Amino acid sequence: MIGIQKNWRLSLLVVGLLVACSAVPATAQLLTYAESGTPEDPGLGLLQEDPHDIVYFTNGSGGGWAKVRLLAFREMPSAAARKGTLKFQILGIETDEFVAKWTDVERIDFWETRLEREVAERIAREDFVGAYPFLSVLIRDYPRRPGLKELRCDFLWRNAIQRARTDQRAESLAMLEELHRYDSRFKQSNVLKAISGITDGLMQAMVDESELDGAQQLLARLKDDYGDFDLTAITKWDDQFLKMALEKRSEAIAAVRAKDYRSARKLARESLYLKPDIENGQELVKKIDEIYPLITVGVLQAARKYDPVRMDNWAARRAGRLLYRNLFEIQGAAPEGGEYDFLFGTARTNPDRTELELVLDTNKLASPLNKIEIDVLADHLTKRALPESETYFSPWAAAVTGIGIESPERAKCVLRRPHVLPTCLLQLNVDASWFGGEKGGPTGDYFVDSVDEKETRFMLTEAARRANSDDSKPREIVEVRCESGSDAVSKLLSGEVDVLDQLFPADALALKQRREIKVVEYPLPTIHMLIPCSDHEFITDKNFRRALLYGINRDDILNGELLENKRFDGCRVLSGPFPAGLSQEDPLGYAYDASILPRPFEPSLAKLLVELSKNLKNAEAERKKEPPPKLRKIRLAFPADNLSRVACEAIKSQWQLIGLEVELVQLPIGETYPEPDTADLVYVSAAIWEPIIDARRLLGPNGLAKSEDQLVGLGLRRLEEALNWKEVRDRLLDLHAISHHELPVLPLWQMVESFAYRRSLSGMGNRIVSLYQNADNWRLDH
């Protein structure tokens, strides 16, 4: 069969024995040649082998075959050229060179020919998944191979047909379009007919599922790509969208005549969305907006409570700004704490910061705010320092020693000691009772008109309407609850909503590519954490809380689940409850100690700490001669929004891996903190915008965490006694370290939030901390 420089049979025997005695499995080596038969078909395993040719020998020479390193020539030489000997190296025996007479060689199966045969055979039996890797190797290594173009076209054509038969329309269309781009002459009439048919079915399915944005984008692209081919589906659906748009426009006109401006607005926008170039479409929308300005806001978290300074409730904080004004309202971050505006005029401190003077200037304020009286203001400042008052705030009580009225427009607060930012202590809701009205009555420009599962309507008050001379201010702001981020984006693109108040980061990136949409980041981030909210025997143990934190792969959840593996500056895992700032120079990070690193994901350590906590609890019970406590399931509560749900589902699965039993509890719409004895931990997205006061609002005995820890309490008291910004920063860093050790809350990550709006809406502003901060200036432009 095979000739070698000396004795080929003896050489092969020696090689076989050496292989058999080596650490490498002999079977794998012996399969590279044989003295009879044919090689076993390795299937997809062929691609794991080194590229090789197979030389088959004649029966007269003894038969057999050998897998050899790629030969220098890539096709069988003619009979006349096959003279003398063929030299080759057998796979696995590269140290020896073998020689065979050409007369002993029956045929050679070349590597690329074998790949082509695999592709063709698998295509014939519709095994496209199996054919693809072989075809990919051919395209990569033999791009100029004769016949490769036809093979590739046949693969795309037959695969597209198969996918169409199994209702994989989008995949089938993608393959047909790839085929047309690759070789526009391949079965051109059949391919174009197939593209038209698949498009028709796909468009119908998208319209049936109300995926109109996707359907319109698809139709517009196909018109650009195949406009010269007169595809039936393109003509059909272009006419169909025009028909639907005309029907919506007719309904909108009828609604205008009936003075049903809410319906008219919705229908006119739907008409324009279906056919952007419909005749008089823009003019109809503009006319309706002039008659009855109305703005719709898509929200992921619906409001059921209204409080513009609520730390843990995004929706309450957002919607509360429409209904209520605040005595001091934060406008943004500055080098030394937040920037606050005094609602009723101007505020200033004396040089040594021991006095806060408030001066009324109500000329530019609308009713009822312009009716404020200095004695009423002084009374509310006093109540905030009285323990029996419902507006009592201990940091203000500790800071102020006297409040006096100096004139009908001027009040002065004398401070017990210098305070770096006394205005931040007076974020106090101003309701109608300040002006002789009903307690809890609104003082903003809007009031709640109606609330249901899908939407909340805020109507412009009569006072605000009288103050709006050109009648261009929105009569209504309607919050529409969206089921998910994708649902919200679809509503924004279709014109069903004008604004989205909160975006998934990946959606924000996608919307930035749309010319008709403006995406803006809020300047202040949210801090996400888990807060204990029950007397669960083990959660009260800080060793167990450490176990919970070590058992969460926070980096994976944040970057993989929430950010979808995209990079967003400012989004990061935290080691404490305070914001880290959006950059190293961000003044908002003054409370965060960057030298304290977040605890890593260490499930083995988490399990160890769980056992340690159990052992300590058992020992304590034995000492007290009580039954040992049982580690019962952990009830993890979360608000009814998609982001919180995704995060908590991931946390649950990771805690289960360390042996914990976990139950997820979804809170009612609008709620962010569970009722007593309904949950043990709650997922909170908090607005920690001013750590000087928010530290107590979060960690204090009356705060969200309700911490009774002595070290935490000491840290809060020392913070409130700070006399200058250096002391404030140093004591906040100490409090960060205490919180990292004691874990009154379990810090997760910091998120940079953003909102989006259609460019037809003006007056939004770019550095707003709350969506409705500039709602007074919102106008619909066309």
From TrEMBL:
Domain Solute-binding protein family positions: 484-669
Name this polypeptide is given: ABC transporter substrate-binding protein
Organism field: Roseiconus lacunae
Signal sequence annotation: 1-28
Keywords: Signal
Superkingdom per UniProt: Bacteria
A family per Pfam: SBP_bac_5
